[in-house]
Amino acid sequence: EAALDAVATGSPPAVEVLSQRLPGLTLETVNAAIHRHVSVGALSVVVLGRDPQALADAILAPAPSGAPAVPLAAERTTVVPRGQLTR
Questions:
Q1: Radius of gyration of the chain (CA)
Q2: From 64's CA, which of 14, 41, 71, 72 has a CA 20 to 30 Å away?
Q3: Verdict on whether the full-model pTM lies above 0.70
């Protein structure tokens, strides 16, 4: 669909634009964009897998030395056991 949009609008394909922009990204610019566009308070993450509780525990654990903490609230974290996911 993006390729059709590029043809219709005359803009360059997304792959071309990304391949030009990605090398110029820094950790600081990516983090700044995340802070501008993502509200952690309104963020919902769905994880499907063999051990979603282990992943939730790892995400909510204190950050390793030197890494910024992930400000997620454990009290708002719900892990749905396999087979109990409903629509």
A1: 18
A2: 41
A3: no
